[in-house]
Amino acid sequence: MNIHQFQEGFLALASIPEDQADRARTIAEGLDDGQRDEFLGKLRTVNDQLQTSGGQLEQLFSEMERLISRTERAIDGTERSEQEQDERSLDIQKAEQHLSQSAS
After folding, report:
1. Which of 13, 33, 41, 49 is deepest in the core (most CB within 10 A)?
2. Is residue 81 pLDDT above 70, yes or no?
């Protein structure tokens, strides 16, 4: 595989980070045709693994986002519930004070 064929095949490897892609292109220039072919094959394997991992990461991030949202809603609900309970307690205290003042 000549360097032009390598570069054409390499363009399809979208998951490889740019800094690593630059290094790979530089390395490929110093390889012979057979080594370049083998190198590109290994890079394709890594690219496929990165794509699979990327999809899994997206799924994990989505799950994490849903968990955080549910937890925030639960906390908001708990805080609201506690606030309502505090308000009711305050109302009861005021009513008790009013009753005790009325009885006096």
Report:
1. 13
2. yes
What are the domain boundaries of the chain?
Answer: 3-103
The DSSP call for residue 30 is T
Is residue 24 pLDDT above 80, yes or no? Answer: yes
Percent over 90 (pLDDT), the chain: 8
HSE at residue 60, side-chain half, CA atoms within 13 A, is: 6
Reported pTM: 0.53
How far apart, in whole angstroms, are the C-alpha atoms of residue 23 and residue 20?
5
Distance, CA of 57 to CA of 35 (rounded, Å): 32
Helices 33-103, 3-11: crossing angle, 10 deg rounding:
20
Nearest in space to 51 (alpha carbons), one of 16, 23, 25: 16
Burial of 16 (0-12, 13-18, 19+ CB in 10 A): middle
Could you tell me the CA-to-CA distances from 15 to 20, 22, 104 in Å, in that order?
10, 13, 81
